[in-house]
Design a protein that fits this description.
Number of helices: 16
Oligomer: single chain
Largest sheet: 5 strands, mixed
Length: about 425
């Protein structure tokens, strides 16, 4: 029996959720989706990028992921609102819960995307192509936002189908429809074909997905290795991956921050790196993980990114040990160009605790460092991330403690928010 896979994608998720909240909870009269509007950062800081935009903003050329300053040049009258990630998680949770009413086989692909395996559900839901319209309309009616839904016999084709014309649409892309609907598209429209891969394919005379599908796979493997074979299979509609209802564990932990000023001195750069190491290491410890590989990324004022990595002597989640390695990698990597972004990443993570090899030249008390990190984690868990910090961050106006990621709500703010949420029946909203 042929599989039936849905891919559901929320249209302009962050903007839609902001609009719904303001209309339903705050009694607003303006729908943000109907004006030139975008969810982004602070206009006064360079870290602001466009996270979501309305259709009318798109008409001005505003693009998701571009700097806020560029978007404002294209659309001076653009309404920009800050992101509220906590609220987005609540809407996402409600979205996924609704999908799971129809099948237990729901895979949350991202905060605003999910796959559903609807194979064999015809006796309960009827014809899939008819049911999917009912699902789309129910989401719009009950949750207040629209979605695109793609239908196919595998995940890749369903995902490709949902990216066709938007918003609030349903599209099919079954294997028999591939030549008509997919092969005519530019190869850049394919998932997992980035700019560098597209450039290599163009050198081979491959411009459309159809060109790629008809190319000898051995030629692709010669030029693009395993990735060439993978995208050839996708171009021909082949995908054997399953809808995973249980999320796979993290393969790596990382954090980065775009700095609001050009960093030109080593001390400031290493303060930023220390702040990032604090967040990365704490997340590793929270999940009971240890990392075997640590890497650093630097993006300079010309937006050129370089990175460097090192295998650790033993898997670790100790902040000080990770930071020491990060500093050494930074010293080897930095060419003294002004820095715009710094990132700290870890990989090859596992829960297995491997013993450390003894060294005559290493007198570090790792057990003591682990106990110290654990104590700090407990204090921050109870009182907030700023309840305890390194002295170097106390009066530092440029670099903040626990940098990168999304800002966390402080305990006293959380209590006040909970009180307001109760008064507004927040649970019913989300």
């Amino acid at each position: 029996m042929e599989k039936v896979i849905f891919h559901i994608d929320v249209n302009s998720a962050f903007l839609s959720w902001e609009a719904v909240y303001r209309l339903k909870e705050q009694g607003g009269t303006v729908d943000l989706r109907e004006i030139p509007c975008a969810v982004g950062g602070d206009k006064s800081k360079r870290r602001g990028i466009i996270l979501a935009k309305s259709i009318s903003a798109k008409a001005y050329g505003v693009k998701t992921g571009e700097p806020l300053t560029d978007a404002l040049k294209k659309c001076p009258g653009l309404t920009v609102i800050p992101a509220h990630h906590g609220m987005y998680k609540e809407y996402s949770k409600k979205f996924i819960e609704l999908l799971r009413e129809y099948t237990p086989d729901v895979e949350q692909y991202s905060i605003d995307e999910a796959f559903m395996d609807m194979s064999g559900m015809e006796k309960l839901t009827g014809d899939p192509c008819a049911f999917v319209h009912k699902l789309k309309n129910r989401i719009s009616r009950e949750l207040g936002f629209t979605v695109n839904i793609g239908i196919s016999s595998n995940k890749y084709l369903a995902k490709m189908a949902s990216d066709f014309e938007k918003p609030d649409r349903v599209h099919t892309l079954f294997p028999s429809e591939i030549p008509e609907k997919m092969w005519c598209l530019p190869v850049s429209e394919m998932l997992f074909v980035g700019k560098s891969t597209e450039k290599e394919l163009r050198k081979l005379g491959i411009y459309t997905i159809g060109d790629l599908a008809k190319t000898d796979v051995e030629i692709l493997k010669h030029h693009l290795k395993k990735h060439g074979e993978a995208i050839w299979k996708f171009a021909n509609g082949q995908d054997s991956s399953l809808v995973e209802s249980v999320p796979e564990g993290n393969k790596g932990y990382g954090n980065s921050t775009t700095i609001a000023f050009d960093v030109t001195d080593e001390d400031t750069a290493k303060m930023v790196l220390l702040s990032l190491c604090e967040t990365v290491a704490s997340r590793l410890r929270k999940d009971g993980q240890r990392a075997e590989v640590v890497s650093v990324a630097i993006k300079n004022f010309e937006l050129k990114t370089v990175s460097h990595q090192q295998v650790m002597p033993a898997p670790t989640n100790i902040t000080g040990e990770i930071y020491h390695t990060v500093c050494r990698l930074f010293d080897e990597l930095w060419d003294e160009s002004p820095i715009r972004l710094l990132g700290v990443y870890t990989s090859k993570v596992s829960r297995e605790e491997k013993g450390r090899q003894m060294s005559l030249f290493d007198h570090t008390d790792y057990e003591k460092m682990e106990k110290l990190d654990h104590a700090v984690d407990e204090i921050r868990k109870k009182f907030g991330s700023d309840a305890i910090m390194r002295a170097s961050f106390l009066d530092n106006r440029k670099v903040k403690n626990m940098a990168g990621g999304h800002p966390q709500t402080k305990p006293e703010q959380k209590k006040e928010e909970n009180k307001n949420q109760q008064n507004k029946n927040w649970e019913e909203l989300c």
